[in-house]
Write a structure and sequence with these properties.
Blueprint: E1 20-22, E2 31-35, H1 48-52, H2 70-81, E3 90-95, E4 104-111, E5 114-121, H3 130-142, H4 147-162, E6 166-172, E7 178-185, E8 196-197, H5 204-212, E9 215-218, H6 251-260, E10 264-272, E11 275-284, H7 292-337, H8 345-355, E12 360-365, E13 368-373, H9 378-391, E14 397-399, E15 418-423, E16 431-436, E17 441-446, E18 455-456, E19 459-462, E20 470-475, H10 484-515, H11 518-543, H12 552-574, E21 581-582, H13 583-594, E22 602-605, E23 610-611, H14 613-632, E24 641-648, E25 654-661, H15 674-687, E26 690-694, E27 701-706, E28 743-747, H16 751-763, E29 768-772, H17 775-785, E30 789-793, E31 795-796, E32 799-800, H18 802-811, E33 815-819, E34 836-838, H19 843-853
Parallel strand pairs: 22-24, 28-29, 28-30, 30-33, 33-34
Antiparallel strand pairs: 1-2, 2-5, 3-4, 4-5, 6-7, 6-11, 7-8, 9-10, 10-11, 12-13, 12-16, 14-15, 15-16, 17-20, 18-19, 21-23, 24-25, 25-27, 26-27, 31-32
Helix pairs in contact: 3-4, 3-7, 4-7, 7-8, 7-10, 11-16, 12-13, 12-14, 13-14, 14-15, 17-18
Amino acid sequence: MNWTDPQQSVDLTNCDREPIHLLGAIQPIGFLLAVSTDWIISRASANIEQFFGRSHDSLIGRPASEIITGDAIHALRNRLALLRGADAVERLFRCALAGDDKYYDVAIHTSGAHVIIEGEPSTEHNYGDATGTVRGMIGRLDSAATLSAFFNEGARQVRALTGFDRVMVYKFDQDGSGEVVSESAKSGIGSFLGLHYPATDIPKQARELYKRNLLRVITDIDAEPVPILPVLDELKQPIDLSLSVLRSVSPIHIEYLRNMGVRASMSVSIIVAGELWGLVACHHYSPRCPSFERRSVAELFAQMFAMRIESRERQEVVEYERRARDISDQLLGAVASDDTLLRDPNWLSEILTNAIPADGVGVWINGNYAFSGQTPDTPGFAELVQKLYGTAAGRVFATDRIADLVPGAGRYASKAAGMLAIPISRTPRDYVVLFRQEIIRSVRWAGDPHKPVELGPNGPRLTPRQSFEEWKELVEGRSTRFTPSELRVAETLRATLIEVVLRMSDEASLERQAASDRQELLIAELNHRVRNILSLIRGLIRQSRPEEGTPIEDFVKTIDQRVHALARAHNQITDDHWGPAPLKALIDAEAAAFLTTQKDRISTQGKPVLLNPQAYSTIALVIHELVTNSAKYGGLSDSGRVDISWQKDNVGALVIEWTEHDGPTVKPPTRKGFGTTIIEHSVPYDLGGSADVDFDPEGLKARFVIPARHIADTPLTEMPSITAAPLPQTHVPVNSDLLLEQRILLVEDSLIIALDAEDILKRLGAKAVFTDATVAGAISTIETERPTMAVLDINLGDANSFPIADRLNDLGIPFLFATGYGEQSKLPERHMSRIVIQKPYTLATMTRRLPELFDDTHNA
């Protein structure tokens, strides 16, 4: 037989001509054949002669067809083709393998390069419809109203099917110990119901095997196992019999059963959600071997039993978590309307314990604490929080025994033996802790679980326990355990409710604290805006270089008009304390400045809309340049007109359209001046929008899209406090080698200021300058261009450049910050030692401060 891959079907085309191979040790109730095309020496189980009348020696090197009929080989080939997965086993009942009147129940699977065929004589002559049997068993299961009744019905059904003296449903605990949760037994043999068994009774490796091989049977503990012949395969390796249905078991387990007085046993794994939930354990006090077909039905029933357990448990979890979500929604709604509830521990306790049952709640925020219900005393709570800092920082932590975490916690165990700690801040600082009281209970063990380990007769190994008489243990200092569902609810409360609510409280507290510093804040804000205005004007002057031969008066006039455009916009946005201003007022102001007697030549259409200050200043320059160009060369230069319209699109962005008509024929400019640069690039660069300009001969057309975040209905909040710094001198020698071969990332959210800074950097010898205005764009530039240094404006509109600084720091790229605020600008802790230069960017400032950047002390 040619087996290729456990995940694929097996090709048995030539199986009748392939040699047979021996395998053992198995229980003597059946035979086992291992077949492989790779072996020269055939092998078969030592008891093969008992079932087929052929000696082992006579089968060496012989084909399978000598003892297995063609029909049987065909049937086996079909079953083997159905195997899916590494642990799959297929079965065939009442199969005449040798062509005589003997029928066998056969199991077939793969093990490494071998196909394993196991068989035992059929003892069922007319079992009936196995599917109907299981369906009826499951129907009786589903009628059980409670989980206890469900377990009892499962044990009763398996006992009726298999005839064992005792059938138990055995459930594993989190620590590996187990409990008999239901039992069906014949009268007079006593009861194991409710007994616990220590984790050592079923070693970890045995549990893993139970997850692969779902049914194991021992028909007689006194039966002599059939040995493997030969012991090793052709590769000098023992054959893996993990999936064998007849394989013998460990002598230790046989000794364990003998100590219990059990002669035969069967266990069926209960797998729930991919894990070993428990076992259906069957005991008999005399030899017993249920038919292979009945055992297979029992295995199928156990699988259906496990699915029903999973369904019931999931239904309970879903219902519980649904109720908990409703409670968390109530919490959020209540605090949103009245944040003083956060300072009421009794109210908070009532809400939280409705979601997660507890006997008390302790709250620790910024070193302040509050209690409700049964909790530790104040010193005990403080000590507990200190332990949480190092043990469960930033995550939900639960234990049913606080004394394992805090020595001496036993003194308050009667009030608080277990806890669930929910961190409510990003740093290990603030907690809400739910406490549960001590539950003193008596646990019934099947023998003393703490009995010392002894060496056994089979060498230096554990000896199975010899006593299984009931042994009671009084468990103290522990609470009811917090379930996985409760832990998930706690994570939800932390992530979506409590943390958000307490952050709202923190923000309100910061606002109250900021009120006392209002005067300093206003001064720093004014300083910041003045610096930005100075930088903007300086950039306007530098970028508005006149063409050679242009009279100085024309140059001054151009500068004067641009500065006045900014001044008009500034007047609008400062009327409401640096708040949003109407777009219509901006257009009217520009029209009045250029068309004192013919204002009606500019028509506007659109609903009232407010622009935030940043957008307002940018659009003021754009409209100014459009009006200026139109008055010089376009529709406003003679008898033409300009139509300006605006409206919001389906995502809330503002679309402004400029259309000129009835003016002179329009020609694309042969030289792109500063005004054209402002029109085409200010909105995309400064505001993250788009600008399209069409030099249509019939009249200039332009379309601008301003993102919704720049459209406002209420004034913007004030900026953080900063201390002013003097402006540096401007007349210094140019050191064109200062930044020689440097590739510089410049992050600046104002196009004009960015152009000015870029010029300065290039004058100082920079090889290349990569400019960007956003965090995402700058980080992308870092990854693609890998600059050698960077200059970062701290404030980027509604964001800051600290994420960019973090990435540069990770890559070891030196950088400095720039700001329009004073030197008191608050930097993150990891960047506290960085250089901060004050705006506006000047040649003097850059020449003085840049050499410091390459000092290792600033880039540690």
